[in-house]
Design goal:
There is one protein chain. The chain is of the alpha+beta class. It has 6 helices and 10 strands, in the order H-H-H-H-H-E-E-E-E-E-E-H-E-E-E-E. An 8-stranded antiparallel sheet has the order 5-4-3-2-7-8-9-10, with helices on one face. The longest helix is centred in the middle third of the chain and has 22 residues.
Length: 289
């Protein structure tokens, strides 16, 4: 059975009566009940809770419940009376409306609070109903999920993975793409959980004549080669200081559009590299000298 929390309803309360924090809390509980029994969607619940936490009057709160069945809620809002204006009522009502309008205009120009009728409380301290958004972009890029996520982020940002070169470090990457406004220049995009604004530079002979799809390689085989690289290059895994992968157009004229991958591994005692094709076929090993 529903029960009242705090002070029982006041018989003289009207829609214009100022709401208390307790009234706002009760309204949120009723909205929670409406969400639980399917009357509200998650988005509708979020919007109404946000409005309820900033409501000024009991009328504002009741307006949020007018289309809900609230009999089964754990609490109920204060009942409000509808006052009848006689004689001076219309004049007084018009005066009140004009005053509130003036206050609203003044607040719109000079106010810095969440309500035109609230000049003292900090609106930033009030609940706003906005849920936290936790971002989970790929940041560990030398893994199947990290490489797949990086390429997907490129497709989402650019529509494709066309470029001259993609350099992939463990936690960030750099993608060189054509400058659509000047084919003599290259745009370099830095990825660190998202693609930053590019820097541009003159196109060099190393960039090749045309950009290709740099995603045309076997991700699983590439990750396997990266993880076995220290042993492949006769290096102790504990000595490795840096590892990075370069994906760029292959120079073999018989395989146009193919990519070539170069994996570089370095330590304080020298470094080496592995060059392989998109399907994981090894082209060359450069052992530490």
């Amino acid at each position: 059975m529903a029960k009242w929390l705090g002070t029982p309803p006041v018989g003289g309360a009207t829609a214009a009566t100022r709401a208390r924090d307790l009234d706002r809390q009760d309204a949120c509980k009723i909205l929670d009940s409406a969400l639980d029994d399917g009357q509200l969607s998650m988005e509708e619940h979020r919007q109404r809770v946000s409005t309820a936490t900033n409501a000024v009057t009991l009328g504002d709160l009741h307006a949020l419940m007018s289309d809900l069945q609230t009999d089964n809620a754990s609490v109920q809002l204060q009942a409000v009376n509808s006052p009848r204006l006689r004689g001076w009522g219309p004049v007084v009502g018009a005066f009140v409306v004009s005053v509130l309008l003036g206050v609203g205009i003044g607040w719109g120009v000079y106010g810095n609070t969440g309500s035109p009728l609230d000049f003292t409380s900090d609106p930033g301290a009030k609940p706003d109903g906005v849920a936290p958004v936790v971002l989970t972009p790929p940041t560990q890029l030398h893994s199947v999920g990290g490489l797949s996520g990086l390429l997907e982020q490129a497709r989402k940002r650019f529509g494709n993975v066309l470029g001259y070169r993609l350099v992939i470090y463990p936690t960030y990457a750099i993608l060189d793409r054509p400058d659509p406004s000047d084919d003599r220049r290259v745009l370099a995009y830095d990825y660190r959980g998202g693609w930053d604004d590019p820097t541009n530079s003159a196109k060099s002979s190393a960039d090749g004549s045309a950009a290709i799809d740099l995603s045309k390689f076997d991700i699983t085989k590439t990750v396997g080669i990266m993880r076995g690289a220290p042993e492949t290059l006769r290096m102790k895994p504990s000595d490795v200081k840096n590892t990075y992968l370069i994906v760029e157009p292959a120079t073999d004229p018989t395989t146009p559009g193919a990519v070539s991958l170069s994996l570089y591994v370095s330590s304080d005692y020298g470094g080496g590299s592995i060059v392989f094709s998109g399907d994981g076929t090894i082209k060359r090993l450069n052992l530490p000298s």
